[in-house]
Write a structure and sequence with these properties.
Helix 1 crosses helix 2. By secondary structure, this protein is mainly beta. Strands 1, 2, 3, 4, 5, 6, 7, 8 and 9 form a 9-stranded antiparallel beta sheet that branches. It has a single domain, classed as Galactose-binding domain-like (Jelly Rolls). Strand 4 and strand 5 form a beta hairpin. It contains 2 helices and 9 strands. The structure holds calcium ion (2 copies). One calcium ion (CA) binds next to loops.
C-alpha cells in the first residue's frame, strides 16, 4: 500500500466505527522502543542471555541454565521501557524452543504502571508456545515496564527454563485518530474492501466527517 494512503485509511476506519457505534480504537504494532532492556528471573548460559530477546535476530534465543525449570515455580522476563509506553495493548512474541523441549505453556502479562519496579497490574494471559501477537483483554494503559510471567512450562531433560528467540514488538492502541502513519493490523470492519476502494480512487468518496 502507498504510505500516503495509510493515514486517510485510518481516519476512514475510525469514522466508520463511529457511525456504527463501535469502539473506534485501531491497533498497530510498534517495534520495541529503542533503549528497552530485558532481564530474566533465572540464570542463563552466556550465549543465551536476555539480550537475545531484543537483538532482532531470530537465530539467537534464551538458553537457561540447567535446573532452572521447577514444577510449580514461575519464571519471568522483565522489560523496562526508556519512557512510559502509552496505550499498550499487547506484545508480539517470537518462537519458543523449536525442538519442543523447553517451551512456555502458560504466560501472564503484568504491568508496572507506576515505574516503581513492581508489576502489579495483570493485563492478560496466553497459552503457549504460540508465537505472534498476544493481545490483552484489558483496556490499553500506559506502562513503564512489562513482566512476562511464565507460570507453566515444559520440564524436560536437563530442566532448563523455557526458551524464546525474541520479543518482536508491542501492540498499541490508537484511539486518538491523530497518530503517525501506522501499519494497521486490525480494525473493526473488513479493511480490505476499504483498501481496494482507496487504492482505486485515492480519495474517499461520500461523507468525510474526519475532515
Ligand atoms: Ca533473538
Ligand atoms: Ca508498580
Amino acid at each position: 500500500m502507498h504510505s500516503s494512503l495509510i493515514r486517510p485509511l485510518l481516519m476512514v476506519v475510525g469514522s466508520i466505527a463511529w457511525l456504527q457505534g463501535a469502539e473506534s480504537t485501531t491497533f498497530f504494532v510498534d517495534p520495541m522502543p529503542v533503549g528497552t532492556t530485558a532481564t530474566v528471573s533465572f540464570a542463563t548460559e552466556a550465549s543465551g542471555s536476555a539480550d537475545t530477546l531484543l537483538d532482532h535476530d531470530p537465530k539467537t534465543a534464551l538458553v537457561a541454565k540447567q535446573g532452572t525449570a521447577q514444577e510449580g515455580k514461575s519464571v519471568s522476563i522483565f522489560l523496562r521501557f526508556p519512557k512510559e509506553v502509552p496505550g499498550l495493548s499487547g506484545v508480539v512474541l517470537g518462537q519458543s524452543d523449536q525442538f519442543g523441549n523447553y517451551v512456555w505453556q502458560q504466560m501472564e502479562f503484568w504491568a508496572d504502571t507506576t515505574g516503581n519496579g513492581t508489576y502489579d497490574t495483570k493485563l492478560g494471559s496466553a497459552k503457549g508456545p504460540a508465537a505472534g501477537q498476544h493481545r490483552f483483554p484489558m483496556a490499553a494503559m500506559p506502562v513503564k515496564g512489562l513482566e512476562l510471567r511464565v507460570t507453566k512450562q515444559s520440564i524436560k531433560g536437563t530442566r532448563r527454563a523455557f526458551s524464546l528467540n525474541g520479543i518482536d514488538g508491542l501492540v498499541m492502541a490508537d484511539s486518538s485518530g491523530s497518530g503517525e502513519m501506522r501499519y494497521v493490523i486490525e480494525d473493526v470492519e473488513d479493511l480490505s474492501s476499504w483498501r481496494t476502494w482507496a487504492d482505486n480512487s485515492a480519495q474517499p468518496e461520500g461523507e468525510r466527517s474526519y475532515g
